[in-house]
Design a protein that fits this description.
Layout (H helix, E strand, L loop, with lengths): L1 E4 H5 L36 H29 L5 E3 L3 E3 L5 E2 L18 E9 L5 E5 L7 E7 L8 E2 L7 E6 L11 E6 L4 E9 L4 H6 L1 H4 L4 E3 L17 E2 L12 H8 L7 H22 L4 E4 L7 H10 L4 E4 L10 H14 L7 H4 L29 E4 L3
Parallel strand pairs: 2-13, 9-10, 14-15
Antiparallel strand pairs: 1-16, 2-3, 4-5, 5-11, 6-9, 6-12, 7-8, 7-11
């Protein structure tokens, strides 16, 4: 025989429930913010719920919106140049610095101070992009290529033993033939791609001069301009453009996110599940910490997910995490017992909501009771609000 506090039951639900039978029917799929219905009137949103929604939006939406915003800003440059005179900017091509980035610039948060940077946004839905790899010798160099979700999709650099030559960057739907003279093809998972070449420079006047010939050959350009010859650019003569103003909510809303998602292929199921599992563990841990709990008793289908349980324990160091099964209450019986308790409370006219726990505006008797043929039996004796649920083994 074991005692389990009702308060523990309130902390017992984990998100990832066991599969159940469902029946499919089509519903309206929103394409604009106005088509997304809000919560029912009077719904109280707890802090933990609002925080979890914010995390989901940030995790999935921010990289896409940020990428689209930056690409739009880069597309307005009439030619490759420098933002504020210090940061390279280009669209469907690249721009390069010829030395270290200015230490007093405020556009990039934490840049390296031992490389010459390059940058450029590419729209691969129209045409592939050729990029040149000159012979860097023993010098360290790397070309970082990111898709619209900021995931790197290629391995181009000294550490990957990339050979000098011409390389082709293509979009997810490209099915063309690789032209003669192209060493290899890299494919972005999205039609929008961001490139950031980095070339190491020694802190000496001699190396600053020696690196210029190879920097001049770090060039990205459309496939239609490829002729098999190594192109060169004098990056020291780039024009300067004013730094863009910061943006507000006019560029950060649901419609904008939906446009950013257009044409993007879905992520692998494994990536989605991994992200949601981490999000579930952190959301639960935040709720537990807010009430200064010293012990968490978990129940529900999520307890069968060893990864989720391990993440939850990792998020709550110093707090005991166990399952209701260890206390004699099988997870599979949790909902049946919970409904039995709620039914008992309703039948006795007792509230089934606790504002401090559920976020409701006031305590309420839940549901309704339909009397049978012989009416509704009245409970004998005074009604006492229960504080514990005792489970007895039969």
């Amino acid at each position: 025989m074991k005692d389990i506090a009702l308060k523990s039951l309130a902390l017992a639900a984990l998100a990832c429930a066991l599969p159940t039978t469902t029946y499919a029917q089509q519903v309206l799929l929103p394409t604009t913010a106005s088509q997304v219905s809000g919560p029912p009137t009077g719904t109280a949103m707890t802090t933990a719920y609002v925080q979890s929604v914010g995390r989901i939006a940030y995790l999935w939406g921010w990289p896409l919106v940020n990428s689209v915003n930056r690409s739009i800003a880069f597309s307005k440059a009439p030619e490759p140049g420098l933002i504020g005179g210090v940061v390279p900017i280009a669209f469907n091509g690249n721009a390069m610095l010829t030395g270290y980035i200015s230490p007093d610039q405020t556009i990039i948060a934490c840049p390296n101070q031992d490389v010459a940077y390059g940058a450029g946004w590419m729209t691969l839905d129209k045409e592939p992009i050729v990029f040149q790899v000159p012979d860097f010798g023993d010098r360290f160099w790397v070309y970082a290529h990111y898709d619209a979700r900021t995931d790197e999709f290629s391995e181009i650099g000294k550490q990957y033993r990339t050979k000098p030559g011409f390389y082709l960057m293509v979009g997810p739907n490209w099915k063309g033939q690789t032209p003669a003279g192209i060493t290899a093809v890299v494919r972005s998972s999205t039609s929008l791609a961001f490139v950031v070449p980095r070339i190491f420079i020694d802190d000496s006047a001699e190396d600053q001069k020696a690196v210029q010939p190879v920097i001049s050959q770090v060039v990205y350009y459309p496939l239609s301009e490829f002729d098999g010859k190594m192109k060169t650019k004098d990056w020291s003569k780039l024009p300067h453009f004013p730094a863009p103003k910061s943006t507000g909510k006019e560029l950060f809303h649901l419609d904008y996110l939906m446009r950013a998602l257009d044409g993007l292929p879905p992520l692998p199921d494994e990536d989605v599940i991994a992200t949601l599992t981490v999000l579930t563990a952190r959301t639960l841990a935040d709720a537990v910490r807010q009430v200064d709990a010293t012990e968490l008793i978990a129940s529900g289908g999520g307890t069968l997910n060893p990864t989720l349980m391990a993440m939850l324990r990792g998020e709550l160091p110093g707090i005991g995490v166990s399952t209701s099964d260890q206390l004699g209450l099988p997870s599979a019986a949790k909902e049946a017992l919970a409904f039995a308790v709620l039914g008992f409370l309703t039948a006795h006219g007792l509230p089934g909501t606790i504002p401090s726990c559920t976020g409701a505006r006031h305590a309420s008797v839940l549901g309704s009771v339909t009397p049978g043929r012989h009416g509704l039996p009245r409970p004998d004796g005074p009604v006492v609000v229960p504080t514990r649920l005792r489970i007895e083994a039969s």
